[in-house]
Design goal:
It is a single chain. The protein has 256 residues and is mainly alpha-helical. It folds into two domains: 47 residues; 207 residues, no CATH class. It contains ten helices and no strands. The protein is rod-shaped and about 90 Å long.
Length: 256
């Protein structure tokens, strides 16, 4: 189940994000215009490579790059684990429906024990309370407790991405401060006679780290929102499926 905003699915947003990044990348050379000399003619300038720009970020820039690698790894892992097939497996739903309809409760419990999904954990907990003193009431309380624990676990998986999204701009700001301090120290050492080339290093560090921090934070925030929507949708579907499967025990005796 995919979330929809303005009629667009998660896949549409991912394609749109890739297209926008591609357009910015292709347009960047067009935005860089060669400077003009006094006669109005363009002068030849030395091109600065992307790698040189990244190196100007210094140690803080390197730390932001490492955070981006971690964020990318987490995004890939979440795309694999936070999806409907892993949280609410359709095959398990069909299997449990058939087994519970035939009153094969032991087989259903074993099927859940073989599965590690959210749905299997909740249903297995309910089936383990089957036949207890308070019947369906005990089953419902047990399923509610384990459901809350599993939901918290799913949301905690996103804490690392949230931390990176919040920390990357702060590191960029730290690089801005250290870069400007470096430039002002040069001004103080030269008693105000510093050349622009002497100040360029600190100013470059300030701007590059800020840019790098935002480049890491903005996509990370997008993916945090994307995965939260996935978790919300899967949790809502799980609750509906569990109610449909376990509602047969509502009679109160532990039997349908």
């Amino acid at each position: 189940m995919s979330s929809r905003v303005f009629g667009l699915t998660e896949r549409h947003y991912l394609v749109l994000c890739v297209v926008l990044v591609g357009l910015v990348w292709l347009a960047s050379p067009l935005l860089a215009q060669a400077p003009l000399d006094d006669s109005g003619a363009t002068t030849e300038v030395k091109r600065i490579s992307l790698w040189t720009t990244i190196v100007q970020g210094g140690y803080i820039g390197l730390l932001i790059i490492l955070m981006s690698v971690v964020a990318l790894s987490l995004v890939i892992e979440h795309f694999i684990t936070i999806r409907r097939e892993r949280i609410v497996p359709p095959g398990l739903i069909d299997e449990l429906e058939g087994q519970l309809a035939r009153a094969e409760y032991e087989q259903a419990q074993q099927a859940c024990a073989r599965d590690t999904s959210f749905l299997a954990t909740v249903v297995r907990t309910g089936l383990e309370r089957r036949g207890s003193m308070f019947g369906h009431f005990d089953m419902q309380n047990a399923m509610q407790e384990v459901s809350e624990r599993e939901i918290s676990r799913l949301y905690r998986k996103l804490d690392y991405l949230t931390f990176i999204a919040a920390t990357a701009p702060m590191l960029g700001l730290l690089g801005t401060v250290t870069g400007m301090i470096r430039s002002f120290n040069i001004i103080a050492e030269t008693e105000g006679t510093a050349k622009p080339s002497q100040l360029a290093g600190g100013i470059s560090e300030a701007l590059v780290t800020t840019c790098m921090g935002l480049i890491v934070a903005i996509p990370t925030m997008f993916f945090v929102s994307l995965f939260r929507n996935r978790v919300d949708n899967c949790v809502a579907e799980t609750e509906t499926v569990v109610e449909k499967l376990m509602g047969r025990f509502r009679a109160g005796t532990g039997q349908p």
